[in-house]
Specification:
Elements lengths: L8 H43 L3 H17 L6 H14 L2 H13 L5 H13 L3 H14 L6 H14 L3 H7 L11 H13 L3 H14 L4 H29 L2 H31 L3 H13 L3 H12 L1
Helix pairs in contact: 1-2, 2-3, 3-4, 3-5, 4-5, 5-6, 6-7, 7-8, 7-9, 8-9, 9-10, 10-11, 11-12, 12-13, 13-14
Length: 310
């Protein structure tokens, strides 16, 4: 009678496979637990550094944490991207602000502070369109936000920079406080009205600028030319009528408006003299020579005519 071996080769192979799988499972479980503990410890270290205001160290630890998650092909929590991006913002690392906060946005981790951070970061790298995009988001989503005045003001400036004249014009009345007290803002609004051919409004805004700064070149140049051409047009029109008819009635009318014409020429003269003082160009000298001639001051007219021809 032949007794069969209880441990035939096939059974031995099977048992070895089972043993290998068991050991591998134990190793994988151990490795998983080890990595989990590593993540947990790293997260705790990062949080502690953050709470103790060791920002640079905290940023480095959070970045390591993100890398570890990505190595394991795990989804990174949006809050982790958000915190890392905001730390980068506090440390002035613009590229990392954009990198991590844009990733946080994909996870819907967005608040007013992150929008401000992104707007300012895009400004740092001169990306005007994306800066405008985030400024607009803040203004629309957080009308009662604690940074609303600053964000609206910058939004207005970027609309002017990008030549979105109509939007800038609509936003102006919504700016916080009295924007007419800010020379640069008011100058931007003056540019908007010039671009939109709102001549009367541009005149009004230019005068407000001169109340803030009597030597603002843009406002002076605009008003100097306005008063000069206004006076010159009326003078020419009325003189042509007088030469054509030479009636007593026409002469009397010319005398009636003469003071108004001279007042406009004098106003233009004041503005052109300030402009010439700042920037003595031949063009400004030519205007002054003509104005003094019309006002009957031949000596000053000759002086500026010579300056115009130099």
């Amino acid at each position: 009678m032949i007794i069969k071996n209880a441990f035939c080769p096939s059974k031995i192979v099977f048992m070895r496979q089972v043993t290998f799988i068991f050991i591998l499972s134990i190793l994988l479980l151990y490795a998983g637990c080890s990595t989990f503990r590593q993540l947990e410890q790293l997260s705790e270290k990062a949080d502690t550094a953050y709470q103790e205001d060791r920002k640079k160290e905290a940023l480095e630890l959070y970045e390591q944490l993100i890398e570890l998650h990505e190595e394991r092909e795990e989804k990174v929590d949006g809050e982790l991207f958000y915190r890392t991006g905001m730390l980068a913002y506090e440390l002035g690392d613009t590229s990392k602000v954009i990198e991590y906060l844009e990733l946080a946005k994909l996870k819907s981790e967005v608040d007013s502070a992150s929008i401000v951070a992104l707007a300012k970061s895009y400004r740092e790298i001169d990306n005007l369109s994306l800066e405008i995009n985030h400024l607009e988001k803040y203004v629309e989503r957080y009308p009662e936000g604690d940074r609303i005045a600053e964000m609206k003001e910058r939004y207005f400036e970027t609309l002017v920079e990008s030549k979105n004249w109509e939007q800038a014009d609509e936003l102006w009345p919504e700016l916080e406080g009295d924007p007419y007290q800010d020379e640069e803002l008011t100058e931007d609004y003056f540019v908007v009205n010039k671009a939109l051919d709102n001549e009367e409004k541009a005149n009004e805004v230019a005068k407000k600028i001169l109340e803030l700064n009597a030597y603002n070149e843009k406002a002076l140049d605009w008003l100097a030319r306005k008063y000069y051409y206004q006076a010159a047009e009326v003078y020419k029109r009325e003189m042509d009528k007088y030469r054509e008819h030479r009636s007593y009635q026409q002469y009397a009318h010319l005398k009636d408006i003469w003071d108004d014409i001279h007042d406009d020429f004098r106003t233009a003269k004041t503005f052109f003299e300030r402009l010439y003082e700042m920037n003595p160009t031949s063009e400004y000298a030519g205007f002054l020579a003509d104005i003094y001639e019309r006002l009957g001051n031949e000596q000053q007219s000759r002086y500026y005519r010579q300056r115009a021809n130099d």
